[in-house]
Amino acid sequence: MKTLAALFFALGLLLAGLLATGQSKSDKMYDAFVNKEGVTSFSFSKDMIDAVDIDLGDDDEKNVKGDLHRVRFMSYNPAKGNLSGEEFLKKAVGLLPAKYKKYEDDDDDSDAEIYLLGGKKKYTECHVFVKNENLEGNRFVVSFYGDFNVNDIEKLQEKGKDMAD
Fold first, then answer.
1. How many whole angstroms separate alpha carbon 2 and alpha carbon 8?
2. Which of 19, 59, 84, 153 has a Cα-to-Cα distance from 5 of 20 to 30 A?
3. Is pLDDT at 164 greater than 80 in this prediction?
4. Which residues pair with 122 in a beta bridge?
5. pLDDT the model gives residue 141
């Protein structure tokens, strides 16, 4: 009986480990807002997206290419929630682990911030946090997951903003 219990325990640990490795650390950000007032979210899984090349402009060198596994989208309406739009984005960004690096944009007037996981031009995650000039307006988070190369991050930022519109 002890052997059987030990076997089930070991199997449970193995399954828990396998399930945990399939999730991103950024999922905590989305999980924190599940069923919260003012929040709407959805995702497209690998089953819906198959080896996507996203063309982000006329120049062949300015694009995102690779295998996109998942896209997540979250919008926040401050009129329906308990936080201001600015507080929502600050909390969402704060839930990303420190290993996600902020992309430093030359445009001080940009209405989006980008956080990346990966290095130089190859990434596994890209999170676009879209602000709104209207303080009462909606805020958005668009996340891209996969194995992709980005040659022009500004174009990816624009694609995230377009998805938020």
1. 10
2. 19
3. no
4. 119, 149
5. 95
